Amino acid sequence: MLELLHIENIAVIEAADIAFRPGFNALTGETGAGKSIVIDAMGAVLGGRTSRELIRTGASHAFVSAEFSGVPADLPGLAEAGVAPDENGELLLQREIGSDGKNVCRANGRPITVAQLRRVGSELLNIHGQHDGAQLLDEEQHGAYLDRFGRTEGVLTAYQQAYGVMADLRGQIRALQMDEAEKARRMDSLRFQIDELERANLQPGEEEELTARRNLLRNGEKYLGALSGADYCLNGGEEGGGAVSALRDAEEALYGIRTLGDDLMELYKRLENLRCEAYDLAETIRDKRAEFDFSPAELDAVESRSDLLYRLKKKYGATVEDMLNYLEKCREELDAIETADDTLSRLEQQLQAAEKKVRAAGAELTQARRAAGAVLEQRIQQELRDLDMNRVRFAIDFAEKEPSPDGCDTIRFLMSANVGEDLRPIARIASGGELARIMLALKNVLAEQEAVGTLVFDEVDTGVSGRAAQKVAEKLAQVSRRKQVLCVTHLPQLAAMADTHFSVEKGESKGRTFTHVILLDREARKAELARLTGGTKVTPALLESAGELLDEAESYRKNL
Fold it and tell me: Which domain does 25 fall in, by range?
């Protein structure tokens, strides 16, 4: 359960610590006091979407942390994030939201991503927002609700895998099904490109070789001049010897005294090695000079080849390797078109088999959904009776449809608000109060199937009053005996039924607005309930009525 929520610089809340307790926790306050901001902070620390506008004016960042107890160590989200609760089953989630849009998220001090935080948060706490009831009006969501209740993930995954194979085959077939004129145009284009690339006779690595040879030929005179100069220095000319000859003379000069001392022998050997190295260099330079054959025709050929590669690169790829890959793809595509009839025949046979598998998997999914739907109808009907909606009938309608990613059936929630009326889509006949209670019933049923330990209801009482409000309060009290319940409400019936009651109050100090969250004792609760009942003017009669409401709620909770 959620033990402590710490909030810093979220909207009008500068700093707040809310120590929630087991059972039913209620939050009340004037409209605009900041109750929904507390819910927004919960959503933020659980990985929900945030914006820089959430940060309190003048602050550089916002910060929220949530301490949970009794966290199972085997939650899939924790394992994926590489974190675990401590030895006492406690888990600390933290999120810092910077004004620059950056987020820092941690779980028990370990950095995690927002996506990982969202995954972990969804396994710990479930928020029913003010506008969630509107989801019931979206019939596309009904199937998802049923799948969650029936835990059809395995069957649904098997169906989606089969559907994916079928969809891929259909895509391949569509790609091959072109009219004859389009086919002829594409084949002509491919043949032209293939011919142009084949005639070029591209070779891997040739671009680098061409560049090197072109640079050499463009600098032929400089190249020969340098080699000739080096050759002259080493070998000499007609008028005199070069370095090699001078080194030979020096070597001969030392030859006679080399044995007179170790140092002289060392000098002689060094000179000998130097003369040999100079001789090898001279021979190498002379060979390179002799090998180089500058030809204007060769330079023209190299320039022409480089220009061809440049033009081809603009059309087919940035490198020779890229162009060769493109050539291979063109060949494959041309072959596929030329053999399209045979390929189409083969793919159509595969498609028939894939469609049969989809139908079979879809039938299995529908069967699982119908079985889950029958149970869900009964459970929702029971919940509605508990919420004083005895005359309301709830049913799930199944209609066959062509296979789609979510199955082969259209699922709709139907209801009849009065005796004798036909079942109709919820969107057509449900009032705001009915939607709120049906959504509450659905949330409660779904929560029974999940390991989530805390349920949050943000103004679940919308459109509800009188006896219906009392029934909603009793239902939340019942749920709170299995899971921790946090509820933002404006109704005294719900606030009175809570085990723990917080008041969200707004004030001003030094020209700034501040929001505080206060834990109420019994006397403070009476005053708050009186305010909820009668408005700003709290009379002794209202206080007495509030006391009676608290007594009745306490008596009801004791009998749960």
Answer: 2-130+434-517
